[in-house]
Amino acid sequence: MIDPRVAPVQAAKIAVAVTFATNGIAFAGWLARAPAVRNDLGLSPAGLGLLLLCLSGAAVLAIPLAGPLVQRFGAARAVLTGSMSVVLGLIVLGTGTALGSVPIAGAGLVLLGAGNSLWDVAMNVEGATVERRVARTLMPRFHAAFSLGTVGGAGLSALAAYLEVSVTIQVCATALLAAAIMLFTVRRFLPAETIPAGSHPGGRVRDAWREPRTLLIGVIMLGFGFTEGAANDWLAISLVDGYHATETVGAIGFGFFVTAMTVGRLFGGSAIERWGRVAALRVTAISALFGLLLVVSGLGIPVVLIGALLWGAGASLGFPVGMSAAADDPLRAAIRVSVAGSIGYGAFLAGPPLIGLLAEHFGILRALFLVVVAIGLGLIGSGAARPLQAATNGIAPTGPPSDSDGSDKA
Q1: Direct distance between the N- and C-terminal alpha carbons of the chain, in angstroms, rounded to an integer
Q2: pTM strictly above 0.90
Q3: Per-residue pLDDT tens over the stretch 78-93
Q4: Which segments cross the bilayer (predicted)?
């Protein structure tokens, strides 16, 4: 007989994983077809970078608002609202692509970016709640579910490209699938955690912006977010433009990246529990660096695919570790996740136009050298990921003890 106290937590654990996976499907369902979107809209590399700025700009502007909204309305309502905005954004993007209208496509990306920020913060806060309830490092696995979703989305994109299915049909079908899943899944989320008498729930956003640890966690997320986002936005295009590969090969290369990222996140939790967050971040940063150098080496598509695997493994843990670290104290989880996420999403704001402009003048492969700077930022901030010693409401923060006993010290 299942313990009635355990069953809701297990149901929420599955629901959070499904939520991350659905977000990944929606995310990769159009990004792997970025070359087709670019061609249908008649954009140059710099023009595509500016179009992607609609997505990243909306995401960055919306994410500071996400924490207070999650705190006020709860993770379930916030996830549902954000996911429906993403669904609408995909439909508008598909419409704009079909009409060859850059403004309409841009409007769709604004809806997609803003909705995804709310969806992202809320599902990470819910994931941290489940993580605390089971007293295990689960955040990398939840992000692995996201990566599995992106693998599925990339696979469907590659198949759609091979069958010459239009981007419009593909993204609209993806939107309807995401809507159907999320309307059911959020019902399994946990109730909000009880706040002890006399505690201040969540604090103020401006206070979190003054916390050195929260800001450094944001730097970790900025560095690894740029490392991940550069591959998401430009890896497929680098194969098409830099190596003269077909669109199908570009989608396969992106699939290699997200597959490696998925494997890294599936096994990353065990590595973190054994060696600590900081050591895991440093090892993955080195893997990302080697992978990036192989991708830009110009040695051929087989070498690029190996590089995509190393790059994906290297990008796997930065964001989930950052989210988990920001949510160590459940009382301030939503606010701190939104503040750290605001810094982290700066990578998605600056990355697409910067790389696009550099690609316009120097070529896409040379432009990707900018990712080296991002990897350095991830290394600089890695020490801030050590778990808090105690939470203010009596719930022990998550994280392996090895991060606090000196084993991660250089």
Answers
A1: 48
A2: no
A3: 999 999 999 999 999 9
A4: 12-32, 44-66, 78-98, 104-122, 142-161, 167-186, 214-237, 249-267, 333-355, 361-380
